[in-house]
Predict the structure of SDR family oxidoreductase.
Amino acid sequence: MNEDARTAIVTGGGKRVGEAIVRALLADGWTVIAHVHHDDDNVLDGAVKVAADLTDGGCADAVFAACAGKPPVRLLVNNASRFVEDRFNEADAAEFDAHMAVNARAPLLLIDELARRHAGGDALVVNLLDAKLAAPNPDFLSYTISKYALAGLTELAARALAGKGIRVNAVAPALMLPSGEQGAANFAEVHGLNPLGRGVGVGDVVRAIRFLIDSPSMTGQTLGIDGGQRFMALPRDVQFLENR
């Protein structure tokens, strides 16, 4: 096997940001395992599709089973995310649990499985967070709490796994694509709502991941990509605001 051959796993790799990450990694010569939720979900040509329900406690086994016969896994991108609106006075136990399962527990299980299988050399985990953690507001309550949990996991895993040569970092972008029930007009209005007046794009995340791949001494760090939006201390989620 080519010593330079390497495998990347991207959760939520069939659409939106995940698809862009898969496309970039394929272009860079990686063998890519693109996780999707349903068997009939599509992935880009050249990627290996694996379907798994991230709320299932056995999801890591299912995802890593797709790596059989492939080059060593050197990159895990925890991109998949549950994003459903809830707020105080509407707390729902099932919705909270679902967010935690997808956004925090599944990344934990996948990182743990990577660590068990890792046989040496450099490996990297990139967790997709949210820029709103730097200046939080209570909208999308369960989602936000679960992303705080993922941020904590990033720190703890980086500390625990450095001795094995596994680096764990995060990328925290602001709004990149229309989300939830957000309409096109609202997205166009608030996409550039930051001091730079420059909307964040999926290409910014791709560049950040490539930077982390090429930075072998970086671990336990979060790259914020928000155009300075955190300086504004917005009182609500950006999709509920207008650019003024």
Remarks:
- The mean pLDDT is 92.
